[in-house]
Amino acid sequence: MVTTLTSSELLLELGDVDGVGNLGGEPAWSGGGGPKLHPAANATAVRLAATVRRRGGRSRGAVTRPRVAAGPVRIAPAMYETESGRPWWVPQAGSGYRVGPMKVWIPHEAGLSLTGDLPADVQLEVYPAHGAPRPSDPATVDVWVPPFLANPDVVAIAHGMPALRLIQLLSAGADVWVGHVPEGVTLCDAQGVHDSSTSEWTVTAILAYLRNFPAFARAQERREWASTQTDELAGKRVLIVGAGAVGMATARRLEPFEVTLTLVARRPRPGVHGIDELPALLPHADIVVLLVPLTPATRHLVDADFLAAMPDGALLVNGARGPVVDTDALTAEVGKGRLAAALDVTSPEPLPTDHPLWTMPNVLITPHVGGSVRGLLPRAYALVGAQLRRLCAGEPLENVVTDGY
Length: 405
Hints:
The chain is of the alpha/beta class. It folds into 3 domains: 1-94, no CATH class; 102-191 and 376-393, Rossmann fold, CATH 3.40.50; 195-365, Rossmann fold. The chain has 9 helices and 20 strands. The strands form 6 sheets. The chain has a 7-stranded parallel beta sheet, with helices on one face. The chain has a 5-stranded parallel beta sheet with strand order 10-9-11-12-13, covered by helices on one side. Strands 1-6 form a two-stranded antiparallel ribbon. Helix 3 packs across helix 5 (245-254). The two termini are 38 Å apart.
């Protein structure tokens, strides 16, 4: 079916225009049933004027606002689909076109100014949390940026958004969302946003535990001058399980501390071991750092056998997700005093107040704050803005989640 779209509010970003001014291929005319109009359409038809800068033969997307003219705008039907009466450009390979307004829900007021310059037809609205007043009809939302740490109740909201095409997370982990996103919706995580903060937490946790800062903090509360010798990081053998962006950032921060680094990932690559080599590597690690996403393959990756393979006195550091570790197995092992643990995440979370891990002297716990830093929002919304500009330009999105990663 061929459709004529008319509107006084459309913005068209062109990836290419052929020599006779058509939008690639033959001109398209209204077919049977008459034209389908954008909700903002009026009796005046629009001709879209666009200028295209080219660099190396590729469009850079410079556009002007539409000019009102007497003729109809003729759009090939493959260029958009209608959801709840809203036109939407469905990007195709090699294309730079998108037609129609875009409504985006974000969770922070600050995001309104942190996304940078956006196309004129991108409309940002603030929806801070589940249960808060909704700024508009969720059925008209095209892109949703959910709150930082979402739960299943938040995830369920996506199923009441029939026009939704993209969920852009502010978290590096997507485990809550994987398998629960409506069909046809792209899920993107915030890989790269948390590299510095999570790697900083990891190094801080290691140093704090080895240099006995928790005990010194407790002594300070008692006003006790508890001078004692501590362990040190220099000379330690550090095994990082998870050699993604955060894992590599952590390795870079640990290198100056005169440690021996070993990295492990799903698949081996130069300088990185495969996950199947873990049993042979664990006995030689003084510190094991977990920085993997939570997937079916990594759930309870750290079980009784994993912990038994670690040498006496080793430190387990979990900056990943709580269920990566079997909490019962960890509690049993550290309860013997043979191993130590530094945890930013637990399972369950929050950790129950009566859980024995709270009071063990060889356990350091922080309340999932690895990514909670002042620089989070500027970095996160810089990514959101970049993704929206890519979407408007018909360019591939970054950080698309596939197979849980």
